[in-house]
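Appendix C reproduces, verbatim, an entry submitted by the partner laboratory led by Prof. M.T., so that reviewers can inspect both the input and the predicted structure.
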Amino acid sequence: MKKKIFLGITCGDINGIGLETVIKVFQNSKLFNFCIPILYVPLQVFNFYVQQFQDVNFSFKLINNSLEAAPNQLNIISFLNTSLTLNPGLSTKIASQIAVRSINLVINDFKKQHIDFIVTLPVNKKNISITLNNFVGHTEYFAESFNNTPNIMLLCNDQFKIATLTNHVPISAVSSMVTKNLLKEKIQILKKVCQRDFLIKIPKIAVLSLNPHSGDEGLIGKEDNEIISPVIDEFNISRKFVFGPFSADAFFGTKNYTKYDIVLAMYHDQALIPFKTLSFGTGVNYTAGLPVVRVSPDHGVAYDIAAKGLADESSLLSTINFGIRVFQNRISR
């Protein structure tokens, strides 16, 4: 029988839908067969969301630290144990402070080897910036917490995996960031991730073009001819495993993505628009390349439906199952 995996879960924005999805997802008792979950959240906050349900059919227990985590229950590590008022659907200072504290606690427990992988529930970046200046996302924050280990934002579902060369930057800055060095770094990460995390020995990596029609031979921008294509050629000197650059519209329009193990997009929306369109609410956001397996459901805080019983837990379920598989792949090598 396989050893159960210790899972650390951040609470995300307590005024969003994250905690509702946690309660819903662990109604699926089969998850307890594969992991021992630990949720880092003030107990009174968790109790508030539990009370929104007529029936919660799993056990949960307050523990003092992660070493006390027990199987077949949702373990709660509480903090900030003072009275507070919840405001579902609103961005508040206390929600910002709690989200940051939860993230830091789970990172510390991973570094102490008390947990095996991490699921982060959604946060509001603007809200987090109340507590953390210049916070632009979990991806960047986790990278900083692990000595800026080279990493890449990777979106995964049952149909395909797509990564982003650039992350949370304005579109006006993208073209200047598309450099040979950055492309080489990200392709190397993707190759390693395919081998270590997905057990694909020789991956097929597709690279999207930056400009419409792959630049039309330099008529619509020179980056595809002068930067992207030479890097692809360099990787293929000994064995061809990187393909492209492909014009994004035709690539997705013809379902070309089904022919490759992983896709590298040049910027955020070039990846996220087709990914979310094809994910049907089951997408996973994976910070690939780090020592820790950190995954997150591919949706936001959804203030508009917070505490209304309308949140869909499908993405969180996919996220937990994905994290378990990746961790198992890592330890199997």
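The two ends are 18 Å apart (CA to CA). Additional entries are available on request from the coordinating office.
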